[in-house]
Amino acid sequence: MGACANCVNGELTVRELTNARIEYVKQQILKKLRLSRRPAVAVPVNSLPMPVAEGQTLSAGADKPPEFDDYYGRTEQKIIFPVEGECLTTGRYPFICLQFELPPDVEPEEVTVVELWFYKERDPLDEYNQTFVISEAAHWDSQQQFKKTKPIAIKETDVGEGWVRVELAWAVRVWLEGMERLHTLHVACRTCQLRRAPLSFHEKHRPFLVLYTKYAGKRRRGRTLECGATTSECCREPLYVSFRELGWDDWIIRPAGYHAYFCKGSCAPISAVSQADSYHHNIIRKYFYSVSNERKAEFKPCCAPTTFSSLQLLYMDSNNTVTQKTLPNMVVESCGCM
């Protein structure tokens, strides 16, 4: 992606060059995710709950994430899939208990929003709005002290079936501060006439917990010449990376692929570059005038990326946790002679 097209051995074919660039992109993605190889995913991506599979949980601004100065991807979202478990105590209303483990790599001050998503089935015996009470289930803490069931959120919904979202950020921050990762949510329906709370555990409708974390940075942009049929000077050439064609669509949920681009084309002689006015050309000019006359003759500018933007991924890791990360410097935004 960042290699100089006019600096590569001319014996390579266009297909070989394209394959080499895509292989470079693959290695960059793995490195920025701190992975040595693609994760071994036990849960098929096509069996994920519909809001996750369709990207409804993606952070705002997912199409054009801000830039930041780092190499590795920055976590913006974690999606946890609770399992149906048992509670130490019951209650007077129909309920379900959801057991889950908070991720170890999220700090309490990083958490901005936490949402519990569950799919509410219709209760044919209820003619009015349904009221759900979400509580931290009674449990023994790490100091072997018994904690009673404590309500943390109330959600009223209409009687129709569908997805329900409940905000739980303050409770999750408290849990993270307490360094306790294993938790159980007691979800009770105060108005339901059924024997159990009408939460679906169908694979497309199973509940999940979304943690959104802080993200800050500024975007860098530059102008560039797009390559055309008759363009010979330094320009930006399209390069689309399809995760399906790579066989990575079983662990990368979103996007289906992305435009990485690369730079190619000829550059003006060093004398012309040294007269141009830009930050990169100023660096070249300083270096050019610092070397001897013999080395100046060897100095040949090369077409290369000058600015990048980020790629935002929603993917499944080996622990079957869905994570949203922004990978810096993955899209070539502009090219120049360097």
Automatic annotation (TrEMBL):
Q: Which coarse location class describes where this protein primarily resides?
A: secreted
Give its localization. Answer: Secreted
Q: Which UniProt keywords apply?
A: Disulfide bond, Glycoprotein, Growth factor, Secreted, Signal
Q: By its UniProt entry, which PROSITE patterns does this protein fall under?
A: TGF_BETA_1 (PS00250), TGF_BETA_2 (PS51362)
* Record keyword Translocase present: no
Give the molecular function GO annotations: cytokine activity; growth factor activity
Q: Which domain of life is it from?
A: Eukaryota
- Please give an example of a GO cellular component term from this record: extracellular space
Extract the Gene3D superfamilies matched here: 2.60.120.970, Cystine-knot cytokines
Q: Where is the TGF-beta family profile domain?
A: 218-338
Instruction: Say which family it is in.
Output: Belongs to the TGF-beta family.
What is this protein called in UniProt?
Answer: Inhibin beta B chain
Give the originating organism. Papilio xuthus (Asian swallowtail butterfly)
